[in-house]
Each structure stands twice: as structure tokens, then as C-alpha cells.
Write a structure and sequence with these properties.
This protein is mostly helical and 685 residues long. Helix content is 63%, strand content 4%. The N and C termini lie far apart (138 Å).
Length: 685
């Protein structure tokens, strides 16, 4: 009979021919003994098979046997049973496997040894050699060279050996993790650029690289929570690559790059580490990031999809946050880009009201309030007229929701900031801006307070605007506010108390500006003074009422400052600023109104002012004067406030303007009984 067949692939007897007890390998010595007998039968079968094969070929039995046999006829068994580890055996390793405890053939180690032997034979110039029992021929000729690997592939291998993405913990970044993030991003970006150049006409061949790049950009957003790592991020020169993506041909990748920058410069992100935010902003400026950001506004400006609208919102957010981190960026943005022009178009009344319009109005306000040059640029672009058109619809309607209300407030703030620039006031008057503001005030809509604020800015130290205001019949409107009409109803609304306080202070400021700018003994000035006579001197009573109110407020601030317990000592300028914030500024303006009305020489106005101020003070409190017994004390309190005001007039508008303003105040001091020693020099000025 033929001997049992050997399954060369598994190195054991075919179970179809040799029956061997297989049950309960883990039972111990009996199982090992039974299995050893089976191995003996298997070895005998291998020997008989080798003998018959040699006889059939007519050989001497020296030919190589089947797999698992060496040239010398020895058999390499795949398993050697053993109850326990009895020491190392070459070519085997000990384990509890499927066949029980024992030594199993180390096929992997055997293959490595054979490969090493083959390589040694090749280096020595040898011919054929055997490997793992098989006859393997190795030619003396060199193998054909494999495909040459690119730098990106080698870089990928190096990253994988270093731990790769699997080793990157995005929950707690450090400098090493940032380097890995940037390395992975730069690799994906380079691959994408190469694939786009190679397959420019076949997008299907580079779409995978686009997806990979997009994922890496999104992964970088994790850096937003670690502003202390921004300097390292900048040092790795990653900012130029991020900015370059803003111009990427794939709009999705460009939009994700915008979102990444928005996250990185977010105010909440950089609040804990201002140095990191400053380093990032400086790098953006250095790499022409402002121009690239504003190009995205034009690229996505149609906002035809939610993705485009989100990209525009992200750019506007970047502008606002960068200006907050780097104030000088307000001027840099407008110097290098047409940002102001784009914002004016975006807040135009024909554009639908949406979130981006709200943000555009806010960004416009930030740019104008923080920079004089931007206000002048806006005037050159026709911005005054554009802003007047934007707020005009609200003279007859209220905003529909809180978002629109915030947008309208920002538009009025932008307009107010714009008219602070003297070169823009002519355009404001030419476009009938004062008349529009008076209509808004008369309408008693929710924008009334903002309109009063705009008029206040327009009239401050501007003679033409004050004259135009009187000619436009604005006295009746503003004195209605000055007298507090409608304020009780306003207080019942949400935020009404703050609006009432602001209107009150703005009305005082407007009336004082009219007295300072209108020439005495002219028709306009006489019309202003007549307001203090009508209704049985009701305006004089209001002046006395407000004087007492704000003098008491300033007295309280002075008391608080005198008993201040902190260790910080304030100098004279800081103390003056504290008092201004506490009500002294409005008290100084009331002093100007009191002195100007008193200087008219009208006996009825004088008597009513002094009488009412004395009566108001009988209720207690004080203004720093320390008591209350007579007309002279009342006049002295006004003179003290005006003298303090004159001493603190600055020269921001030039020394000539400062001297002119001081001269007007000194004349008022003389009208109510003189000033301190040495004021003659100021009077001469």
C-alpha cells in the first residue's frame, strides 16, 4: 500500500490517512505521550515516502525531500510537545498553541535567516542557494531597480515611524503636537499642489488630495484653544501656507481656511495670551494677509449659498478680531484694501437684512471709531451720504427685532463717528443730515436717542452746523428733549433709564454748543436766549434742577475718592477723569449754559436762575461748596466749575483753538463776577 500523503503546506500528516488521538490536548502527560506516538508514525511515513520517491527516480536518496526536509534528510518538525519551558531551541519558540504546550516552529525567523543567507551569498558572488527547504535560484545579476520614492513618501514613512497621526493627541496640544500638525498639513498641501499640476485637466485624479487637505485644515482648528502655542505655529512658517489657501481654486478649501483664521484670531481664543495673538496678527500682516482676506470678500460676495455667506461672515470676523488684537490694523486694512467701499455697499438699504449686514455695520463702526484717517477716507468715498441713506428708513419705522436694532445702532454710531471729522461735516450739512436727524427725533421712534447723539457730534465746535440747526427750527425739538418730555414713558421700556440719561446729557451738550458757537446779538443767538424767557422761565428752572442734580453727583464722587482705601494713588489728571465720568463733564456744560443765559443781561433770567438754584439746594446735598447761604455762594460754585473747565481744555485741535475756547469761557467768568487771580491773561488770550 502507498504511504500516507504529507501535506507540505502544513507540515503534518493528512488526517485522512493517519488517525491520531486528538482529544483533550490540555489534559497533561497522557496527551503528550499519545501525541508523541503519532509523531513517530509520521516520521516513519516521511522516511518511507522519501525512499519510494528516490527509487522511482533511480536516485540514491540524496535528492531534496519535501518541504520541511533538509538536503541531509533531517526533518524540521512544526511542533515539539513539552509540558514546560526547558530552555531555548534554535528555530522554535515555546507557547500554548492549538496542538498543546510545546515548541512551535518559528517560520518567520526561519524566513528571515534564509533571506539573510541569500543576501550574503549574493554579496559574495555565489550562485544558487536554498531557502526554507525550497530550491530557490538567486541570479548573480542585480535585480531591476524599483520605483524611485518621492520626498513626500519618505516623509510619510518618517512620520509613521515617529508615531504618525495615531500618536497625535488632539485633546492636549504641546509644541511637539503642533509640529506634527503643521508637518501633516504641509505634506498634504504639497501633495495637492503636485497633483493639481500633474492632472490639471482631470479633477478626478486630484480630488482625493483635496479631501485630505481639507481634513488637515480642519484639524488645525484645534490650535485655537492654545494661543500660547501661536509663536511656535508662526515660527514653523505655517501662516503663509494658510493664507495661500485663501486663493485656492477649490472654494471649499478657501472657505475652510477663512474659518481657520477666524477661529485662531477669535477674541475668546487670544484673551488668555495676548502675546500669542499679537505674534499671529503680525505674521498675517507680514505675509500680506489683509489683501488676501479682502479678496475673499469679493470672491464670496454674492453670498449665493450658505457656505459663501459663512465665508463672508468669517472674513468680517477676522477683520474685527485682528483690529482688537492690533489697533493699528484699522488703518492698515483701509490703506491696503478697498474694505471701506465694500462695507458701504454691504450696509446699503437695498441689501436684505441678514447676519452679515449686521456684522458689516459693526465692523464699519469699529474702523471709524478707532481711526481719524479712516473717517476722512470714508468722506472721500461719499460715505456720509451712504450712511444717511442707510438710516433714513428708520425715521418712520422701528427695527423689527433685536438684531436689526443693533444694526441700526451701529449705523448711527458710524455716522456719528464720521461727522466728528470736520471735513465730513460739510457733506453732512449738504446732504441735509441735520434735517433728517430732526425728523427722527420728532418721530419718537427707537432711533431717537441715536439721532440726538449724532446731532451732538455734528454741532460740537462747528459754527455752520449750529447756524443750520437754528435755521432748520431745531430749537423747539431739542428743548423738548432738554425739558425731559417723554422721558417718563421711555423709562418704562427695557433699557429706558439708560436712554433717558443719555438724552439728558446730549441735550445739555447741544444747548451749550449753541451758546458757544452762535454769535451774540445776532438773530439766531437772540432766538436761543428767548427760549429761557418763554413759559415763565421754565428753561431756567430746568437748568437749576439739573445743576443741583449733577453737582450732588460730583460731590458723591469726590467723597468716594477722598475715602478711597486702595494703595493706588491717582495724579491730578487721573482724578479729573474720574470726576468727569462721575458727572463733572455735564456739570461744566451746565455751567456754560448758566453763565451764557446770565450774561444776556435780562433781569428776569438772572433772578429766576439764582432763585431756583438756591431753592433746589435747600433740599440738602452739596456741590463741594460746603453750605448754602446766598446768591454769591451760588455764583461762586458756577465760577469754580468753569475755572476747572478752562484749566483743562486741551490742545488736541491746536494751540490756537485751545486759546479761543479758553477765551470764551473766561468771558463767561467775567460776566458772572470774575474768576481767580491771574485770569486776566486768559481773558486777553
Amino acid at each position: 500500500p502507498h504511504p500516507p500523503r504529507v501535506d507540505d503546506r502544513r507540515g503534518k500528516m493528512d488526517p485522512g490517512n493517519v488517525k491520531r488521538k486528538r482529544a483533550n490536548y490540555e489534559t497533561g502527560a497522557d496527551a503528550i505521550e499519545d501525541f508523541a506516538k503519532g509523531l513517530d508514525a509520521e516520521a516513519s511515513a516521511r522516511a518511507r515516502e522519501s525512499h519510494h520517491a528516490s527509487r522511482d527516480r533511480g536516485g540514491d536518496g540524496s535528492a531534496p525531500g519535501p518541504a520541511g526536509s533538509s538536503a541531509g534528510g533531517s526533518t524540521a518538525l512544526s511542533y515539539l510537545p513539552s509540558r514546560s519551558f526547558t530552555g531555548a531551541r534554535p528555530g522554535y519558540y515555546f507557547r500554548l498553541g492549538n496542538q498543546g504546550p510545546g515548541y512551535y516552529l518559528d517560520a518567520r525567523g526561519k524566513a528571515k535567516s534564509a533571506a539573510a543567507a541569500a543576501a550574503a551569498a549574493l554579496d559574495a558572488g555565489g550562485g544558487n542557494t536554498s531557502m526554507a527547504g525550497e530550491e530557490t535560484t538567486i541570479s548573480n545579476s542585480k535585480p531591476p531597480p524599483g520605483p524611485r520614492r518621492t520626498a513626500d513618501e519618505l516623509l510619510a514613512d518618517a512620520e509613521e515611524n515617529a508615531g504618525g497621526d495615531a500618536a497625535l493627541d488632539l485633546t492636549n496640544l504641546d509644541e511637539k503636537a503642533v509640529r506634527k500638525l503643521v508637518l501633516a498639513f504641509e505634506r498634504k498641501y504639497a501633495t495637492n499642489q503636485a497633483m493639481r499640476l500633474k492632472h490639471a485637466d482631470d479633477p478626478a485624479k486630484f480630488i482625493d488630495s483635496e479631501v485630505d487637505l481639507d481634513e488637515e485644515v480642519k484639524r488645525l482648528q484645534r490650535l485655537a484653544g492654545y494661543p500660547d502655542l501661536y509663536p511656535e505655529f508662526v515660527r514653523l512658517n505655517a501662516v503663509p501656507s494658510i493664507l495661500a489657501l485663501l486663493a485656492h481654486d477649490n472654494p471649499d478649501i478657501a472657505a475652510d481656511a477663512v474659518e481657520l483664521l477666524h477661529e485662531l484670531v477669535d477674541a475668546d481664543a487670544v484673551e488668555s495670551n495676548e502675546e500669542g495673538g499679537a505674534a499671529l496678527a503680525a505674521s498675517i500682516v507680514k505675509e500680506s494677509g489683509f489683501e488676501l482676506l479682502i479678496e475673499c470678500l469679493h470672491r464670496f460676495g454674492k453670498e449665493s449659498s450658505p457656505e459663501e455667506a459663512a465665508a463672508v461672515n468669517g472674513v468680517l470676523g477676522c477683520v474685527e478680531n485682528i483690529v482688537e488684537i492690533r489697533p493699528e490694523a484699522a488703518s492698515e486694512f483701509c490703506d491696503k484694501t478697498p474694505l471701506l467701499k465694500w462695507l458701504l455697499r454691504r450696509v446699503a438699504p437695498k441689501r436684505a437684512i441678514d447676519n452679515n449686514k449686521l456684522v458689516a455695520a459693526e465692523v464699519l463702526t469699529v474702523l471709524l471709531q478707532s481711526n481719524d484717517a479712516n473717517r476722512a477716507r470714508l468722506g472721500e468715498l461719499g460715505g456720509v451720504e451712504a450712511l444717511l441713506k442707510a438710516v433714513a428708513p428708520y425715521k418712520s419705522k422701528d427695527p423689527s427685532d433685536e438684531g436689526e436694532e443693533e444694526m441700526v445702532a451701529n449705523l448711527f454710531d458710524a455716522l456719528s463717528a464720521c461727522v466728528m471729522e470736520r471735513s465730513n461735516r460739510d457733506a453732512f450739512l449738504e446732504c441735509e443730515g441735520l434735517e433728517l436727524m430732526l425728523l427722527v427725533i420728532k418721530s419718537k421712534r427707537s432711533s431717537r436717542t441715536a439721532a440726538i447723539k449724532c446731532v451732538d457730534y455734528a454741532l460740537t465746535r462747528c459754527v455752520p452746523a449750529c447756524e443750520r440747526f437754528v435755521d432748520a427750527l431745531g430749537l423747539k425739538t431739542i428743548f423738548s428733549v432738554f425739558m425731559g418730555k417723554g422721558h417718563e414713558k421711555m423709562r418704562k421700556r427695557a433699557g429706558g433709564a439708560e436712554a433717558v440719561a443719555e438724552e439728558e446729557e446730549r441735550a445739555v451738550s447741544i444747548v451749550s454748543s449753541l451758546f458757544l458757537c452762535l454769535t451774540p446779538n445776532t438773530e439766531r443767538h437772540d432766538r436761543l436766549c428767548a427760549k429761557f424767557v418763554e413759559d415763565t422761565h421754565a428753561k431756567c428752572d430746568r437748568v437749576a434742577e439739573l445743576w443741583t442734580k449733577y453737582s450732588r453727583r460730583v460731590y458723591s464722587v469726590d467723597e468716594a475718592l477722598s475715602t478711597r482705601g486702595d494703595a493706588i494713588e491717582l495724579d491730578d489728571d487721573e482724578l479729573y477723569i474720574e470726576r468727569l465720568d462721575g458727572g463733572l463733564y455735564t456739570l461744566e456744560l451746565l455751567g456754560i449754559i448758566f453763565a451764557s443765559a446770565f450774561a444776556t443781561g435780562d433781569e428776569g433770567i438772572r433772578r429766576r436762575l439764582l432763585l431756583q438754584m438756591d431753592l433746589q439746594d435747600d433740599g440738602g446735598g452739596g456741590d463741594g461748596g460746603g453750605g448754602g447761604d446766598g446768591i454769591e455762594r451760588r455764583l461762586k460754585s458756577v465760577r469754580d466749575v468753569l475755572e476747572t473747565h478752562a484749566e483743562n481744555i486741551g490742545d488736541a485741535d491746536g494751540e490756537e483753538e485751545r486759546d479761543a475756547r479758553r477765551g470764551k469761557v473766561v468771558k463767561l467768568l467775567v460776566a458772572i463776577g470774575g474768576g481767580r487771580e491771574g485770569d486776566d491773561d486768559d481773558d486777553d488770550a
